[in-house]
Specification:
single chain; 17 strands; alpha/beta
Length: 234
């Protein structure tokens, strides 16, 4: 337990440039308080003191705005940045060095008991407002873009953006657990690229139509129309 707590402090200092020293981290980071509260609640949950465990988790929720079910399994080095509105469900599993931003939901999609929440591998980064839903697995060192909605499994070292989440293979080298990629500005804009391609296609079609209009049309006896054009693509 103490080893994990030290690891949690180190994770905050490594991933937040605003953290100046360990005392500031301990006193001023509600994300850390929520993780530590969960660690206590999880031990009680495993000891079958489930009502007490739930009460501690609700107390931590009231203090931090972060809701972590005591049944969730969380590895060392979880960093919840800002954290308000983060929800982690009962059967969620998080590996080492995971980073979550505010408004993230690791939720379930079934009312059946059993595994119904996501599993996040080591070094996963989930951007602000993203929703990862269902008993799916997010591979090691993958990144989920802000406000993405992920309902399908994600392979390791991938990038997920959009609604519903679109999986893109990362061209970057594999990251180590101590260096998660926090550069959200480098995530691809799938929707923007699609709109740009659509605009380019519309412009191309408009040029072709304009070329047709500027030629003399000849009506055939059967009512059809033919024309002559120097553009072989028309």
């Amino acid at each position: 337990m103490l080893r994990k707590m030290r690891h949690d402090i180190r994770a905050v200092k490594e991933r937040d440039p605003a953290a100046r020293n360990w005392l500031e981290v301990v006193l001023c980071y509600p994300g850390l308080w929520a993780v530590w509260g969960h660690r206590v609640a999880h031990v009680l949950w495993r000891w079958r003191l489930k009502l007490l465990a739930r009460w501690i988790s609700q107390l931590a929720r009231g203090l931090t705005g972060i809701e972590i079910h005591p049944g969730a399994i969380i590895g060392p080095g979880l960093f919840i940045d800002h954290g308000m509105g983060v929800v982690i469900g009962e059967t969620a599993e998080l590996g080492a060095e995971v980073t979550l931003y505010q408004g993230v939901t690791l939720g379930g999609t079934s009312r059946e008991k059993g595994k119904r929440h996501p599993t996040l591998g080591d070094g996963v980064v989930v951007g602000a407002g993203a929703k990862v839903l269902g008993a799916i697995e997010i591979g090691d060192y993958s990144r989920v873009g802000a406000n993405a909605v992920v309902v399908k499994p994600v392979p390791p070292c991938a990038v997920v953006v959009g609604v519903p989440g679109e999986i893109l293979t990362s061209k970057e080298a594999r990251l180590t657990p101590t260096t998660p990629n926090l550069e959200h500005g480098e995530l691809p804009d799938v929707l923007g690229d699609a709109v740009a391609d659509l605009v380019a296609r519309v412009e191309e079609l408009e040029q072709k139509v304009e070329g047709v209009v500027h030629h003399d049309l000849v009506f055939t006896p059967t009512g059809g129309v033919w024309y002559e054009s120097d553009d072989p693509s028309i």
